[in-house]
Structures are given as structure tokens and as C-alpha cells.
Amino acid sequence: MLDIQSPLPGTFYQKAAPDEADYKTTGDAVAVGDTIGLIEVMKTFIEIKAETAGTFDGYVAENEAPVTAGAVLARLQG
Fold it and tell me: What is the side-by-side order of every strand in the sheet holding 72-77?
């Protein structure tokens, strides 16, 4: 199991907009560089990208939840 962690504190989003689908769903293939979510810090959105390839195992952090730096956002199966 590979963890995708937040690089900074902020609010985590699983999708780009409320009316859009999540970036990834369980079972999706994930390539290096795929966006899996967003962190909002002071009205600035930073894309969270996968640094390793694998199969998406699911989100750990809830959508629109506050997160700290180092918090696990999602997990991949290698």
C-alpha cells in the first residue's frame, strides 16, 4: 500500500468542482503525475499529483476536510 500525503496544510478536495466526478475512484489506474485531488490554501488551489504508479485504493481524507501537512489523502496499491 502506498500513501499519497498532503504536502501542506489546507482544505482537501476530491474533485475539481462540486458538480464534477472525483478525480479517481477505487480500482482506477494511476500513472505518475495524475492529479488525485486539490489542496486549497488561502483561495489558492494546488493540484496533488501521484508520484508513483499503481491502482487507486481509495481516499482516506474526506472531501472538503481540513488536512495537515503529511496527512494521508489517498492510498494506492503498487
Answer: 2-5, 72-77, 54-59, 29-30
Which pLDDT score is estimated for 49? 97
Q: Angle at Cα 34 formed by Cα 65 and Cα 5, nearest 5°?
A: 40
Q: How many CA atoms lie within 13 A of 56 on its CB side?
A: 23
What is d(CA 45, CA 25) in angstroms, rounded to the nearest whole number?
21
Alpha-helical segments (H) within 14-63: none
The runs of H, that is alpha helices, within 1-78 are none
Residue 62: DSSP 8-state = P
Classify 2-77 by CATH class.
mainly beta
Domain boundaries, the chain: 2-77
Q: What kind and span of H or E run contains 29?
A: strand 29-30
Q: What is the pTM of this model?
A: 0.93
Arithmetic mean of pLDDT, 13-30: 97
